[in-house]
Amino acid sequence: MRWLGTILCLYLGSSWVQSNLEFGLTNAFLPQTTFLLGPMEVPCNESLCTGPLSEIYCHGEILQNSWQFGLQKTCPGDKLRVPAKEVLANFKKLPYPMSVDKFRSFCEESFEQVNYLEVVNLTDWKIDPVFLREITDEKQRNLASELNERWKRLARQFTSDVLTHPDMYPLLPVQNPFIVPGGRFDVYFYWDTYWIIKGLLVSKMYETTKGIIDNFSNLVTTLGYIPNSGNIQLTRRSQPPLFPHMVWEYTKATGSYDEKWLNSMIMEMEFWEKNRTIEVDGHTLFAYKTLSNCPRPENFRGDYSIGMNTTMPSDVWRGISSACESGWDFSSRWMQGDTTAALSNIHTDQIVPVDLNVLMANNYRYMALYAEHFLKIDEATSYRRKLEKISAAIQHVLWDDKLGAWLDFDVSLKKKNSNFYPSNVYPLMIPGFEKYADKVENYMKKSGALKFAGGIPSSLPSESLNQQWDFPNVWAPNQHFVIQSFLATSNSFLQQEAAKQSQAFIETVYNGMYNPTGGLTGGVWEKYDARSTGGAPGTGGEYIVQEGFGWTNGAVLDLIWTFRSNHNRLEKSSELELETSQQFALVYTAAGFCAMVAVVVVFKGLIKYKTRQASEDAEAGALLLGENDENDD
Protein backbone atom coordinates (compact mmCIF):
# COMPACT_ATOMS: atom_id res chain seq x y z
CA MET A 1 0.00 0.00 0.00
CA ARG A 2 3.12 2.24 -0.07
CA TRP A 3 2.17 3.46 -3.55
CA LEU A 4 -1.20 4.71 -2.24
CA GLY A 5 0.57 6.88 0.32
CA THR A 6 2.81 8.30 -2.36
CA ILE A 7 -0.14 9.23 -4.57
CA LEU A 8 -1.91 10.83 -1.58
CA CYS A 9 1.18 12.94 -0.77
CA LEU A 10 1.49 14.03 -4.38
CA TYR A 11 -2.18 14.93 -4.52
CA LEU A 12 -2.14 16.92 -1.28
CA GLY A 13 1.11 18.68 -2.23
CA SER A 14 -0.09 19.60 -5.69
CA SER A 15 -3.43 20.75 -4.29
CA TRP A 16 -1.54 23.13 -1.99
CA VAL A 17 0.43 24.45 -4.96
CA GLN A 18 -2.68 24.88 -7.07
CA SER A 19 -4.65 26.66 -4.33
CA ASN A 20 -1.77 29.04 -3.72
CA LEU A 21 -1.57 29.77 -7.44
CA GLU A 22 -5.21 30.71 -7.44
CA PHE A 23 -4.65 33.19 -4.63
CA GLY A 24 -1.48 34.58 -6.24
CA LEU A 25 0.93 33.94 -3.39
CA THR A 26 4.56 34.46 -4.33
CA ASN A 27 5.79 31.14 -2.90
CA ALA A 28 3.50 29.31 -5.34
CA PHE A 29 6.12 30.02 -7.99
CA LEU A 30 9.07 28.35 -6.30
CA PRO A 31 11.18 26.35 -8.81
CA GLN A 32 10.74 23.27 -6.57
CA THR A 33 7.24 22.84 -7.99
CA THR A 34 7.28 19.43 -9.67
CA PHE A 35 3.64 18.52 -10.07
CA LEU A 36 0.56 20.39 -11.37
CA LEU A 37 -3.04 19.30 -11.13
CA GLY A 38 -4.28 21.56 -13.89
CA PRO A 39 -3.82 24.85 -15.74
CA MET A 40 -3.73 28.20 -13.97
CA GLU A 41 -6.52 30.71 -14.05
CA VAL A 42 -5.15 34.04 -15.27
CA PRO A 43 -7.86 36.74 -15.38
CA CYS A 44 -6.87 38.61 -18.54
CA ASN A 45 -7.92 38.62 -22.19
CA GLU A 46 -5.38 40.69 -24.16
CA SER A 47 -2.07 38.93 -24.80
CA LEU A 48 1.35 40.52 -25.22
CA CYS A 49 1.52 39.34 -28.82
CA THR A 50 -0.67 37.94 -31.56
CA GLY A 51 -0.20 35.39 -34.32
CA PRO A 52 0.50 31.64 -34.52
CA LEU A 53 3.28 31.75 -31.90
CA SER A 54 1.37 33.78 -29.32
CA GLU A 55 -0.14 30.81 -27.45
CA ILE A 56 3.36 29.40 -27.05
CA TYR A 57 5.45 32.46 -26.19
CA CYS A 58 3.07 35.13 -24.88
CA HIS A 59 0.19 33.45 -23.03
CA GLY A 60 -1.26 30.04 -22.32
CA GLU A 61 -0.34 26.87 -20.49
CA ILE A 62 3.08 26.24 -22.02
CA LEU A 63 4.35 29.59 -20.79
CA GLN A 64 2.61 29.32 -17.43
CA ASN A 65 3.77 25.78 -16.72
CA SER A 66 7.31 26.64 -17.72
CA TRP A 67 7.43 29.37 -15.07
CA GLN A 68 5.85 27.14 -12.43
CA PHE A 69 8.36 24.37 -13.13
CA GLY A 70 11.29 26.82 -13.16
CA LEU A 71 12.13 26.06 -16.81
CA GLN A 72 11.39 29.52 -18.22
CA LYS A 73 14.99 30.18 -19.31
CA THR A 74 14.94 27.38 -21.87
CA CYS A 75 11.25 26.64 -22.50
CA PRO A 76 9.87 27.81 -24.78
CA GLY A 77 13.22 27.96 -26.58
CA ASP A 78 14.90 30.11 -29.21
CA LYS A 79 13.48 28.07 -32.10
CA LEU A 80 10.66 25.62 -32.73
CA ARG A 81 11.69 22.14 -33.85
CA VAL A 82 8.29 21.61 -35.47
CA PRO A 83 5.61 24.06 -36.68
CA ALA A 84 3.58 25.92 -34.05
CA LYS A 85 0.38 23.97 -34.69
CA GLU A 86 2.20 20.73 -34.05
CA VAL A 87 3.77 22.05 -30.85
CA LEU A 88 0.34 23.03 -29.51
CA ALA A 89 -1.20 19.71 -30.59
CA ASN A 90 1.57 17.77 -28.85
CA PHE A 91 1.13 19.78 -25.66
CA LYS A 92 -2.60 19.08 -25.58
CA LYS A 93 -1.76 15.36 -25.48
CA LEU A 94 -0.01 15.83 -22.12
CA PRO A 95 -2.45 14.85 -19.35
CA TYR A 96 -2.96 16.53 -16.01
CA PRO A 97 -1.78 15.92 -13.34
CA MET A 98 1.50 16.86 -15.06
CA SER A 99 4.99 16.20 -13.74
CA VAL A 100 8.01 18.36 -14.40
CA ASP A 101 9.76 15.45 -16.12
CA LYS A 102 6.97 14.98 -18.66
CA PHE A 103 6.85 18.70 -19.35
CA ARG A 104 10.64 18.90 -19.70
CA SER A 105 10.58 16.07 -22.25
CA PHE A 106 7.90 17.94 -24.21
CA CYS A 107 10.06 21.07 -24.20
CA GLU A 108 13.14 19.22 -25.42
CA GLU A 109 11.14 17.65 -28.26
CA SER A 110 9.52 20.96 -29.25
CA PHE A 111 12.26 23.62 -28.92
CA GLU A 112 15.98 24.13 -29.33
CA GLN A 113 18.48 26.75 -28.19
CA VAL A 114 20.24 28.32 -31.19
CA ASN A 115 22.09 31.46 -32.16
CA TYR A 116 19.63 33.58 -34.10
CA LEU A 117 22.01 36.53 -34.45
CA GLU A 118 25.46 36.81 -35.93
CA VAL A 119 28.21 39.41 -35.76
CA VAL A 120 28.34 41.54 -38.88
CA ASN A 121 31.07 43.60 -40.50
CA LEU A 122 29.89 47.19 -40.90
CA THR A 123 31.44 48.45 -44.13
CA ASP A 124 31.27 52.12 -43.10
CA TRP A 125 32.96 51.63 -39.72
CA LYS A 126 36.50 53.04 -39.46
CA ILE A 127 39.04 52.28 -36.76
CA ASP A 128 40.39 55.85 -36.81
CA PRO A 129 37.55 58.08 -38.04
CA VAL A 130 38.31 61.65 -39.04
CA PHE A 131 36.05 63.19 -36.41
CA LEU A 132 38.43 62.11 -33.63
CA ARG A 133 41.03 64.61 -34.86
CA GLU A 134 38.68 67.50 -34.08
CA ILE A 135 38.34 66.54 -30.41
CA THR A 136 41.07 68.52 -28.66
CA ASP A 137 40.63 67.12 -25.14
CA GLU A 138 42.80 64.00 -24.94
CA LYS A 139 40.65 62.14 -22.39
CA GLN A 140 37.49 62.79 -24.35
CA ARG A 141 39.20 61.80 -27.59
CA ASN A 142 40.25 58.48 -26.04
CA LEU A 143 36.73 57.87 -24.77
CA ALA A 144 35.23 58.76 -28.14
CA SER A 145 37.61 56.31 -29.81
CA GLU A 146 36.50 53.56 -27.41
CA LEU A 147 32.83 54.31 -28.02
CA ASN A 148 33.36 54.31 -31.78
CA GLU A 149 35.08 50.93 -31.50
CA ARG A 150 32.04 49.53 -29.71
CA TRP A 151 29.82 49.93 -32.78
CA LYS A 152 31.74 47.04 -34.28
CA ARG A 153 31.21 44.91 -31.17
CA LEU A 154 27.50 45.65 -30.89
CA ALA A 155 26.64 45.18 -34.56
CA ARG A 156 24.35 42.24 -35.36
CA GLN A 157 22.18 40.81 -38.07
CA PHE A 158 19.72 37.95 -38.11
CA THR A 159 20.98 34.63 -39.42
CA SER A 160 19.91 33.44 -42.84
CA ASP A 161 17.83 30.70 -41.21
CA VAL A 162 15.79 33.28 -39.30
CA LEU A 163 15.14 35.21 -42.51
CA THR A 164 14.25 32.01 -44.37
CA HIS A 165 12.06 30.46 -41.65
CA PRO A 166 10.65 33.35 -39.59
CA ASP A 167 7.64 31.25 -38.55
CA MET A 168 9.96 29.03 -36.46
CA TYR A 169 11.42 31.86 -34.35
CA PRO A 170 9.84 34.13 -31.70
CA LEU A 171 11.29 37.14 -33.49
CA LEU A 172 10.42 39.99 -35.82
CA PRO A 173 13.41 39.80 -38.15
CA VAL A 174 14.69 42.74 -40.21
CA GLN A 175 16.88 42.64 -43.30
CA ASN A 176 19.65 45.11 -42.49
CA PRO A 177 22.31 45.06 -39.75
CA PHE A 178 21.56 46.94 -36.54
CA ILE A 179 23.21 47.91 -33.25
CA VAL A 180 22.04 46.12 -30.11
CA PRO A 181 22.05 47.85 -26.71
CA GLY A 182 24.23 45.14 -25.18
CA GLY A 183 24.11 42.59 -22.38
CA ARG A 184 20.75 40.84 -22.07
CA PHE A 185 19.31 43.20 -24.69
CA ASP A 186 20.50 41.22 -27.67
CA VAL A 187 18.12 42.36 -30.43
CA TYR A 188 17.13 45.78 -31.71
CA PHE A 189 15.13 48.03 -29.37
CA TYR A 190 13.05 50.97 -30.53
CA TRP A 191 13.87 54.04 -28.45
CA ASP A 192 17.45 52.98 -27.68
CA THR A 193 18.07 53.33 -31.40
CA TYR A 194 17.58 57.10 -31.40
CA TRP A 195 20.71 57.67 -29.30
CA ILE A 196 22.54 54.91 -31.15
CA ILE A 197 21.84 56.81 -34.35
CA LYS A 198 23.03 60.07 -32.79
CA GLY A 199 26.36 58.38 -32.13
CA LEU A 200 26.53 56.65 -35.50
CA LEU A 201 26.11 60.01 -37.21
CA VAL A 202 29.03 61.43 -35.22
CA SER A 203 31.03 58.44 -36.47
CA LYS A 204 29.85 59.30 -40.02
CA MET A 205 28.34 55.83 -40.37
CA TYR A 206 25.62 56.91 -42.77
CA GLU A 207 25.12 53.57 -44.50
CA THR A 208 24.52 51.74 -41.24
CA THR A 209 22.14 54.47 -40.07
CA LYS A 210 20.16 54.34 -43.31
CA GLY A 211 19.82 50.58 -43.03
CA ILE A 212 18.50 50.85 -39.46
CA ILE A 213 15.94 53.47 -40.48
CA ASP A 214 14.90 51.25 -43.39
CA ASN A 215 14.38 48.39 -40.92
CA PHE A 216 12.01 50.49 -38.85
CA SER A 217 10.26 51.86 -41.91
CA ASN A 218 9.54 48.31 -43.08
CA LEU A 219 8.25 47.34 -39.63
CA VAL A 220 5.76 50.22 -39.76
CA THR A 221 4.63 49.08 -43.21
CA THR A 222 4.05 45.56 -41.84
CA LEU A 223 2.63 46.29 -38.37
CA GLY A 224 1.47 49.89 -38.52
CA TYR A 225 3.85 50.82 -35.70
CA ILE A 226 7.33 50.06 -34.35
CA PRO A 227 7.35 47.46 -31.56
CA ASN A 228 9.29 47.64 -28.31
CA SER A 229 11.89 45.25 -29.75
CA GLY A 230 12.50 42.39 -32.14
CA ASN A 231 11.47 39.83 -29.51
CA ILE A 232 7.91 38.66 -30.22
CA GLN A 233 7.07 38.76 -26.50
CA LEU A 234 7.44 42.54 -26.55
CA THR A 235 5.71 43.29 -29.84
CA ARG A 236 2.26 44.41 -28.76
CA ARG A 237 3.67 47.44 -27.06
CA SER A 238 5.74 50.17 -28.65
CA GLN A 239 8.21 52.60 -27.08
CA PRO A 240 8.62 56.41 -27.13
CA PRO A 241 7.86 57.32 -30.79
CA LEU A 242 11.25 58.61 -31.92
CA PHE A 243 11.19 57.35 -35.51
CA PRO A 244 10.58 60.83 -37.03
CA HIS A 245 13.41 62.15 -34.85
CA MET A 246 15.73 59.47 -36.25
CA VAL A 247 14.76 60.33 -39.80
CA TRP A 248 15.30 64.04 -39.21
CA GLU A 249 18.71 63.54 -37.62
CA TYR A 250 19.81 61.51 -40.64
CA THR A 251 18.45 64.15 -43.02
CA LYS A 252 20.22 66.95 -41.15
CA ALA A 253 23.51 65.06 -41.35
CA THR A 254 23.28 63.94 -44.99
CA GLY A 255 20.75 66.19 -46.73
CA SER A 256 19.03 63.02 -47.98
CA TYR A 257 15.27 62.46 -48.03
CA ASP A 258 13.25 59.32 -48.74
CA GLU A 259 9.53 59.55 -49.48
CA LYS A 260 9.04 55.99 -48.24
CA TRP A 261 10.14 57.16 -44.80
CA LEU A 262 7.56 59.95 -44.88
CA ASN A 263 4.83 57.41 -45.58
CA SER A 264 6.07 55.30 -42.65
CA MET A 265 6.09 58.32 -40.35
CA ILE A 266 2.51 59.09 -41.35
CA MET A 267 1.42 55.51 -40.61
CA GLU A 268 3.11 55.49 -37.22
CA MET A 269 1.58 58.81 -36.18
CA GLU A 270 -1.84 57.51 -37.20
CA PHE A 271 -1.30 54.53 -34.88
CA TRP A 272 -0.50 56.78 -31.93
CA GLU A 273 -3.38 59.13 -32.72
CA LYS A 274 -5.83 56.22 -32.90
CA ASN A 275 -4.61 54.16 -29.94
CA ARG A 276 -2.73 56.36 -27.48
CA THR A 277 -4.74 59.55 -26.92
CA ILE A 278 -6.43 60.80 -23.78
CA GLU A 279 -8.77 63.77 -23.22
CA VAL A 280 -8.15 66.36 -20.51
CA ASP A 281 -10.16 69.60 -20.19
CA GLY A 282 -11.15 69.46 -23.83
CA HIS A 283 -7.57 68.92 -25.00
CA THR A 284 -6.28 65.80 -26.74
CA LEU A 285 -2.95 64.59 -25.41
CA PHE A 286 -1.02 61.34 -25.57
CA ALA A 287 -0.47 58.60 -23.00
CA TYR A 288 1.14 55.18 -22.91
CA LYS A 289 -1.84 52.80 -23.08
CA THR A 290 -1.13 49.30 -24.29
CA LEU A 291 -3.99 46.93 -25.09
CA SER A 292 -2.37 44.04 -23.24
CA ASN A 293 -3.72 43.30 -19.77
CA CYS A 294 -1.88 40.04 -19.06
CA PRO A 295 1.32 39.28 -17.12
CA ARG A 296 4.44 39.93 -19.18
CA PRO A 297 5.86 36.66 -20.51
CA GLU A 298 9.41 37.82 -19.74
CA ASN A 299 8.49 38.26 -16.05
CA PHE A 300 5.37 36.15 -15.67
CA ARG A 301 6.01 35.02 -12.10
CA GLY A 302 6.51 38.51 -10.69
CA ASP A 303 3.65 40.11 -12.60
CA TYR A 304 1.19 37.35 -11.70
CA SER A 305 2.04 37.63 -8.01
CA ILE A 306 1.70 41.42 -7.98
CA GLY A 307 -1.56 41.46 -9.91
CA MET A 308 -3.28 38.65 -8.03
CA ASN A 309 -2.66 40.43 -4.74
CA THR A 310 -4.81 43.36 -5.91
CA THR A 311 -8.51 43.72 -6.56
CA MET A 312 -8.03 44.50 -10.30
CA PRO A 313 -5.13 42.37 -11.58
CA SER A 314 -5.76 43.04 -15.28
CA ASP A 315 -5.59 46.81 -14.66
CA VAL A 316 -2.25 46.37 -12.89
CA TRP A 317 -0.90 44.25 -15.74
CA ARG A 318 -1.98 46.87 -18.29
CA GLY A 319 -0.25 49.54 -16.20
CA ILE A 320 2.94 47.46 -16.09
CA SER A 321 2.90 46.85 -19.84
CA SER A 322 2.24 50.54 -20.50
CA ALA A 323 5.16 51.51 -18.27
CA CYS A 324 7.39 49.23 -20.35
CA GLU A 325 6.14 51.07 -23.43
CA SER A 326 7.22 54.35 -21.84
CA GLY A 327 10.83 53.15 -21.58
CA TRP A 328 10.80 54.20 -17.92
CA ASP A 329 10.22 50.73 -16.52
CA PHE A 330 9.82 51.36 -13.75
CA SER A 331 9.45 54.81 -12.21
CA SER A 332 7.54 56.50 -9.41
CA ARG A 333 6.02 58.63 -12.19
CA TRP A 334 3.56 55.82 -12.85
CA MET A 335 2.60 55.30 -9.19
CA GLN A 336 1.59 58.74 -8.01
CA GLY A 337 -0.22 58.59 -4.69
CA ASP A 338 1.93 55.71 -3.38
CA THR A 339 5.03 56.87 -1.50
CA THR A 340 6.53 53.38 -1.69
CA ALA A 341 6.43 53.35 -5.52
CA ALA A 342 4.93 49.86 -5.44
CA LEU A 343 3.98 48.22 -8.73
CA SER A 344 0.64 47.18 -7.25
CA ASN A 345 -0.37 50.87 -7.50
CA ILE A 346 0.80 51.37 -11.07
CA HIS A 347 -1.59 53.12 -13.47
CA THR A 348 0.60 54.33 -16.32
CA ASP A 349 -2.30 54.40 -18.78
CA GLN A 350 -4.03 57.08 -16.67
CA ILE A 351 -1.08 59.48 -16.68
CA VAL A 352 -0.34 62.16 -19.29
CA PRO A 353 3.49 62.23 -19.48
CA VAL A 354 5.29 65.42 -20.42
CA ASP A 355 8.00 63.75 -22.49
CA LEU A 356 5.69 61.71 -24.74
CA ASN A 357 3.74 64.81 -25.72
CA VAL A 358 6.94 66.75 -26.41
CA LEU A 359 8.09 63.95 -28.71
CA MET A 360 4.77 64.00 -30.56
CA ALA A 361 4.93 67.78 -30.95
CA ASN A 362 8.39 67.64 -32.51
CA ASN A 363 7.35 64.65 -34.63
CA TYR A 364 4.70 66.89 -36.22
CA ARG A 365 7.31 69.60 -36.66
CA TYR A 366 9.77 67.35 -38.47
CA MET A 367 7.06 65.75 -40.59
CA ALA A 368 5.88 69.18 -41.74
CA LEU A 369 9.42 70.01 -42.89
CA TYR A 370 9.75 66.62 -44.54
CA ALA A 371 6.43 66.97 -46.37
CA GLU A 372 7.45 70.43 -47.61
CA HIS A 373 10.52 68.93 -49.24
CA PHE A 374 8.27 66.73 -51.38
CA LEU A 375 5.98 69.72 -52.08
CA LYS A 376 3.15 68.12 -50.10
CA ILE A 377 1.90 71.48 -48.90
CA ASP A 378 -1.48 70.31 -47.58
CA GLU A 379 0.19 67.60 -45.47
CA ALA A 380 2.78 70.07 -44.19
CA THR A 381 0.06 72.53 -43.23
CA SER A 382 -1.86 69.78 -41.43
CA TYR A 383 1.17 68.80 -39.34
CA ARG A 384 1.91 72.40 -38.44
CA ARG A 385 -1.66 72.74 -37.18
CA LYS A 386 -1.24 69.57 -35.13
CA LEU A 387 1.97 71.01 -33.70
CA GLU A 388 0.14 74.19 -32.70
CA LYS A 389 -2.73 72.21 -31.17
CA ILE A 390 -0.60 69.89 -29.05
CA SER A 391 1.67 72.77 -28.00
CA ALA A 392 -1.38 74.60 -26.68
CA ALA A 393 -2.56 71.44 -24.90
CA ILE A 394 0.83 70.91 -23.25
CA GLN A 395 0.82 74.47 -21.99
CA HIS A 396 -2.78 74.39 -20.77
CA VAL A 397 -2.75 71.00 -19.05
CA LEU A 398 0.85 70.40 -17.97
CA TRP A 399 2.37 73.81 -17.23
CA ASP A 400 2.64 74.84 -13.56
CA ASP A 401 3.31 78.56 -13.45
CA LYS A 402 4.05 78.60 -9.74
CA LEU A 403 6.81 76.01 -10.04
CA GLY A 404 7.97 77.09 -13.49
CA ALA A 405 7.89 73.64 -15.11
CA TRP A 406 5.66 71.18 -16.92
CA LEU A 407 4.32 68.30 -14.83
CA ASP A 408 2.78 64.91 -15.59
CA PHE A 409 -1.00 64.92 -15.12
CA ASP A 410 -2.73 62.02 -13.41
CA VAL A 411 -6.22 61.69 -14.90
CA SER A 412 -7.42 59.26 -12.23
CA LEU A 413 -6.38 61.58 -9.38
CA LYS A 414 -7.12 64.76 -11.36
CA LYS A 415 -3.85 66.41 -10.34
CA LYS A 416 -0.30 67.05 -11.44
CA ASN A 417 2.73 65.21 -10.08
CA SER A 418 4.90 67.87 -8.42
CA ASN A 419 7.95 65.63 -7.99
CA PHE A 420 11.03 66.46 -10.04
CA TYR A 421 11.69 64.41 -13.15
CA PRO A 422 14.11 65.42 -15.94
CA SER A 423 11.18 65.33 -18.38
CA ASN A 424 9.67 68.34 -16.59
CA VAL A 425 11.82 70.66 -18.75
CA TYR A 426 11.63 68.87 -22.11
CA PRO A 427 9.03 71.27 -23.59
CA LEU A 428 11.87 73.77 -24.01
CA MET A 429 12.70 71.72 -27.12
CA ILE A 430 9.39 72.78 -28.74
CA PRO A 431 9.60 75.95 -30.89
CA GLY A 432 8.08 78.92 -29.08
CA PHE A 433 8.60 77.58 -25.57
CA GLU A 434 11.90 79.37 -25.00
CA LYS A 435 9.95 82.26 -23.46
CA TYR A 436 9.58 80.12 -20.34
CA ALA A 437 13.34 79.63 -19.97
CA ASP A 438 13.78 82.13 -17.14
CA LYS A 439 11.11 80.40 -15.06
CA VAL A 440 12.67 77.03 -15.82
CA GLU A 441 16.01 78.42 -14.65
CA ASN A 442 14.49 79.27 -11.27
CA TYR A 443 12.79 75.88 -11.12
CA MET A 444 16.02 74.02 -11.78
CA LYS A 445 17.88 76.04 -9.15
CA LYS A 446 15.24 75.27 -6.52
CA SER A 447 14.72 71.62 -7.49
CA GLY A 448 18.08 70.43 -6.17
CA ALA A 449 18.63 68.40 -9.33
CA LEU A 450 21.73 70.38 -10.32
CA LYS A 451 23.75 69.62 -7.20
CA PHE A 452 24.74 66.06 -8.11
CA ALA A 453 28.24 65.59 -9.49
CA GLY A 454 27.54 62.75 -11.93
CA GLY A 455 24.46 64.06 -13.68
CA ILE A 456 20.78 64.77 -13.15
CA PRO A 457 18.96 62.01 -11.21
CA SER A 458 15.83 60.46 -12.63
CA SER A 459 13.62 61.72 -9.80
CA LEU A 460 13.49 63.80 -6.65
CA PRO A 461 12.88 63.79 -3.75
CA SER A 462 15.26 60.97 -3.00
CA GLU A 463 12.58 59.21 -0.95
CA SER A 464 10.84 58.15 -4.20
CA LEU A 465 13.02 55.04 -4.25
CA ASN A 466 12.59 51.37 -5.19
CA GLN A 467 12.50 51.74 -8.97
CA GLN A 468 15.44 51.97 -11.35
CA TRP A 469 14.14 55.10 -13.12
CA ASP A 470 14.28 57.00 -9.84
CA PHE A 471 16.93 58.57 -7.62
CA PRO A 472 19.91 58.13 -7.59
CA ASN A 473 20.20 56.76 -11.13
CA VAL A 474 21.10 58.95 -14.09
CA TRP A 475 20.31 57.59 -17.55
CA ALA A 476 21.86 58.71 -20.83
CA PRO A 477 18.50 59.45 -22.55
CA ASN A 478 17.39 61.79 -19.75
CA GLN A 479 20.75 63.50 -19.43
CA HIS A 480 20.95 64.05 -23.18
CA PHE A 481 17.41 65.42 -23.51
CA VAL A 482 17.85 67.78 -20.55
CA ILE A 483 21.00 69.17 -22.15
CA GLN A 484 19.22 69.54 -25.49
CA SER A 485 16.36 71.32 -23.71
CA PHE A 486 18.76 73.82 -22.13
CA LEU A 487 20.57 74.36 -25.43
CA ALA A 488 17.29 75.16 -27.17
CA THR A 489 17.13 78.42 -25.21
CA SER A 490 19.20 81.60 -25.17
CA ASN A 491 19.16 81.68 -21.37
CA SER A 492 22.81 82.09 -20.31
CA PHE A 493 22.44 80.08 -17.10
CA LEU A 494 20.80 77.14 -18.87
CA GLN A 495 23.40 77.29 -21.64
CA GLN A 496 26.22 77.15 -19.11
CA GLU A 497 24.45 74.39 -17.20
CA ALA A 498 24.16 72.39 -20.42
CA ALA A 499 27.94 72.50 -20.80
CA LYS A 500 28.41 71.65 -17.12
CA GLN A 501 26.00 68.70 -17.25
CA SER A 502 27.61 67.44 -20.43
CA GLN A 503 31.05 67.52 -18.85
CA ALA A 504 29.76 65.83 -15.69
CA PHE A 505 28.20 62.93 -17.56
CA ILE A 506 31.17 62.49 -19.89
CA GLU A 507 33.44 62.38 -16.84
CA THR A 508 31.16 59.82 -15.18
CA VAL A 509 31.21 57.55 -18.22
CA TYR A 510 34.97 58.02 -18.65
CA ASN A 511 35.68 56.96 -15.08
CA GLY A 512 33.31 54.02 -15.34
CA MET A 513 35.36 52.86 -18.32
CA TYR A 514 38.92 53.70 -17.27
CA ASN A 515 38.87 54.22 -13.49
CA PRO A 516 36.29 51.78 -12.12
CA THR A 517 35.75 51.64 -8.38
CA GLY A 518 34.61 49.00 -5.92
CA GLY A 519 36.40 46.14 -7.64
CA LEU A 520 34.34 46.48 -10.81
CA THR A 521 35.76 45.93 -14.25
CA GLY A 522 35.67 48.91 -16.60
CA GLY A 523 32.62 49.25 -18.79
CA VAL A 524 30.03 51.49 -20.38
CA TRP A 525 26.84 51.06 -18.40
CA GLU A 526 23.16 51.49 -19.16
CA LYS A 527 22.75 53.72 -16.08
CA TYR A 528 24.96 55.43 -13.49
CA ASP A 529 24.87 56.75 -9.94
CA ALA A 530 24.32 60.51 -10.19
CA ARG A 531 25.90 61.23 -6.80
CA SER A 532 29.47 60.94 -8.07
CA THR A 533 31.54 61.17 -11.23
CA GLY A 534 33.25 57.94 -10.17
CA GLY A 535 31.42 56.00 -12.87
CA ALA A 536 29.63 53.58 -10.54
CA PRO A 537 26.80 51.83 -12.38
CA GLY A 538 23.23 52.47 -11.29
CA THR A 539 21.22 50.04 -9.24
CA GLY A 540 17.73 48.58 -9.01
CA GLY A 541 15.42 47.04 -11.54
CA GLU A 542 14.41 43.50 -12.45
CA TYR A 543 17.90 42.54 -13.61
CA ILE A 544 21.52 43.36 -12.88
CA VAL A 545 22.93 46.47 -14.53
CA GLN A 546 23.90 45.87 -18.15
CA GLU A 547 27.10 46.82 -19.96
CA GLY A 548 27.48 47.76 -23.59
CA PHE A 549 25.77 50.11 -23.91
CA GLY A 550 24.09 51.42 -27.02
CA TRP A 551 22.36 54.58 -25.87
CA THR A 552 25.16 55.60 -23.51
CA ASN A 553 27.66 55.22 -26.35
CA GLY A 554 25.57 57.34 -28.69
CA ALA A 555 24.57 60.05 -26.24
CA VAL A 556 28.11 60.56 -24.97
CA LEU A 557 29.58 60.62 -28.47
CA ASP A 558 27.06 63.30 -29.40
CA LEU A 559 27.87 65.33 -26.28
CA ILE A 560 31.61 65.09 -26.86
CA TRP A 561 31.11 66.25 -30.43
CA THR A 562 28.73 69.06 -29.50
CA PHE A 563 31.12 70.49 -26.89
CA ARG A 564 34.38 69.63 -28.65
CA SER A 565 35.78 73.18 -28.67
CA ASN A 566 38.69 74.04 -26.39
CA HIS A 567 36.57 76.68 -24.67
CA ASN A 568 33.41 74.57 -24.51
CA ARG A 569 31.66 76.99 -26.83
CA LEU A 570 28.07 75.89 -27.04
CA GLU A 571 27.09 74.77 -30.47
CA LYS A 572 23.51 74.79 -31.62
CA SER A 573 21.85 72.35 -33.96
CA SER A 574 21.89 73.28 -37.61
CA GLU A 575 18.24 73.57 -38.55
CA LEU A 576 17.12 72.74 -42.07
CA GLU A 577 14.12 74.98 -41.54
CA LEU A 578 15.46 78.06 -43.36
CA GLU A 579 14.02 78.51 -46.79
CA THR A 580 16.42 79.14 -49.66
CA SER A 581 15.50 82.81 -49.83
CA GLN A 582 16.23 83.16 -46.11
CA GLN A 583 19.62 81.52 -46.51
CA PHE A 584 20.57 83.89 -49.34
CA ALA A 585 19.34 86.85 -47.32
CA LEU A 586 21.57 85.82 -44.42
CA VAL A 587 24.60 85.48 -46.70
CA TYR A 588 23.96 88.84 -48.41
CA THR A 589 23.43 90.58 -45.06
CA ALA A 590 26.68 89.20 -43.68
CA ALA A 591 28.57 90.12 -46.84
CA GLY A 592 27.13 93.64 -46.75
CA PHE A 593 28.13 93.99 -43.13
CA CYS A 594 31.70 92.93 -43.86
CA ALA A 595 31.90 95.35 -46.81
CA MET A 596 30.59 98.21 -44.71
CA VAL A 597 33.18 97.54 -42.01
CA ALA A 598 35.94 97.55 -44.65
CA VAL A 599 34.79 100.94 -46.02
CA VAL A 600 34.81 102.43 -42.52
CA VAL A 601 38.33 101.13 -41.94
CA VAL A 602 39.63 102.69 -45.15
CA PHE A 603 37.74 105.91 -44.60
CA LYS A 604 39.26 106.43 -41.16
CA GLY A 605 42.73 105.82 -42.55
CA LEU A 606 43.62 103.25 -39.94
CA ILE A 607 46.32 101.83 -42.12
CA LYS A 608 48.53 100.61 -39.33
CA TYR A 609 45.65 98.48 -38.02
CA LYS A 610 44.73 97.13 -41.40
CA THR A 611 46.07 93.63 -40.92
CA ARG A 612 44.58 93.19 -37.49
CA GLN A 613 41.22 94.70 -38.54
CA ALA A 614 40.98 92.40 -41.54
CA SER A 615 41.52 89.45 -39.26
CA GLU A 616 38.81 90.65 -36.92
CA ASP A 617 36.42 91.25 -39.83
CA ALA A 618 37.03 87.76 -41.09
CA GLU A 619 36.33 86.35 -37.64
CA ALA A 620 33.13 88.40 -37.33
CA GLY A 621 31.97 87.25 -40.73
CA ALA A 622 32.76 83.65 -39.85
CA LEU A 623 30.72 83.91 -36.67
CA LEU A 624 27.79 85.40 -38.56
CA LEU A 625 27.90 82.86 -41.34
CA GLY A 626 29.10 79.74 -39.64
CA GLU A 627 28.37 79.63 -35.94
CA ASN A 628 25.24 77.58 -36.39
CA ASP A 629 26.85 75.24 -38.92
CA GLU A 630 29.68 73.87 -36.81
CA ASN A 631 27.60 71.18 -35.16
CA ASP A 632 25.98 68.52 -37.28
CA ASP A 633 23.47 67.88 -34.52
UniProtKB/TrEMBL annotation:
Query: What reaction gets catalysed by this protein?
Result: alpha,alpha-trehalose + H2O = alpha-D-glucose + beta-D-glucose
> Is Transmembrane among this UniProt entry's keywords?
yes
Has UniProt tagged this entry with the keyword Hydrolase? Answer: yes
Signal sequence coordinates: 1-19
Q: Enumerate the GO terms in the molecular function aspect.
A: alpha,alpha-trehalase activity
- The top EC class is hydrolase
TM stretches of this protein: 584-603
Q: Which residues form a coiled coil?
A: none
Q: Name one GO biological process term.
A: trehalose catabolic process
**Keywords on record:** Glycosidase, Hydrolase, Membrane, Signal, Transmembrane, Transmembrane helix
Enzyme nomenclature, EC number:
3.2.1.28
- Pfam families, alphabetized: Trehalase (PF01204)
Q: Name the protein family.
A: Belongs to the glycosyl hydrolase 37 family.
Return the PANTHER family for the record: TREHALASE
The protein in question is named: Trehalase
